[in-house]
From TrEMBL:
Enzyme Commission (EC) number: 2.1.1.-
General function of this protein: S-adenosyl-L-methionine-dependent methyltransferase.
Protein known as: tRNA N(3)-methylcytidine methyltransferase
Gene Ontology BP annotations: methylation
Family, per entry: Belongs to the methyltransferase superfamily. METL family.
Amino acid sequence: MSGDCEYHTNDFEWDQLRQEIESDPSLRYHLLPLHTITNPSSSQSQSQSLFPSQDSEAWNKFHTRHSTGKFFKERRYILKEFPELLSCNEYSKVLEVGCGNGSTVLPILRGKQSITVYSCDCSIEALKRAEEMIYAADLVSVKDRFHPFLCDFSFIGFPKWLACDPCSEGFLQKQDIFLSDVKDTREAGINDFVSLKERKCCLGGVDFVTLIFTLSAVPIHRMPKAIEACFSVLKPGGLLLFRDYGLYDMTMLRFEPNKKLGSREYMRSDGTRSYFFCLDTVRDLFTRAGFNEIELEYCCVKSVNRRKGKSMRRVWVHGKFQKPA
């Protein structure tokens, strides 16, 4: 990975951080099995994981609360971390899974003017924020290159039109639905909510799938199905580009014992969840789904909060996985 930007440097060794954390008694609860920790919220969290609508509602509230967009910065490092998005063939198709407010989609659309991005999220509020951000950017032919749709890929997979199924006729029979018109997700089937522009034909698969800080929000028991869904919509030889929270990241160490749901899995006070990956877990999840590993490593970045004068050690997992040709 390139080292000319603070996003891409390895400022410290992950093994050194691991030794420090695992020898600190005050952080020992992060290493313990859940049953050894008094956690009154665990039963609630387990029941919540059975109802993805509750997860979606938590993220709806999150994006409503952060509707100004200031919480998320545009992820301009994406094209440096994943240069394949710039060097790809003309008119390549990207599926951005868990697009949030569009902070990942925007630099991709800006970086290559012939690329088309299909963006999904389980939160209708997130999709509205993304649509607002993308259209406000005034990009070239953005309405023809940006297609948002509602989908909880970890629970029901992706719409059939993303792959090769002859499903276009069913979509053409639906009334026109636009994100800005939807007040309640019940107005549209969660797996059928697509942009009108994409009801005319099936895509036959996509060239790239991006999972950028998305899989960590999925309950651990639904992750294998989620990755299998990604595998199913990729064209042979297509790439899945992965970036997410790594084990012993600063945000993990900030969670209190009563926020722990399981090994490396936590729930925030707003009901959203986060998992922290080690390399072996990521490797196992993706290779079991049929992917070939191309790249997989920790990205360890030290950033400084100038206002508080504190140094923060961030750990992310960077990976690239390919569907066999």
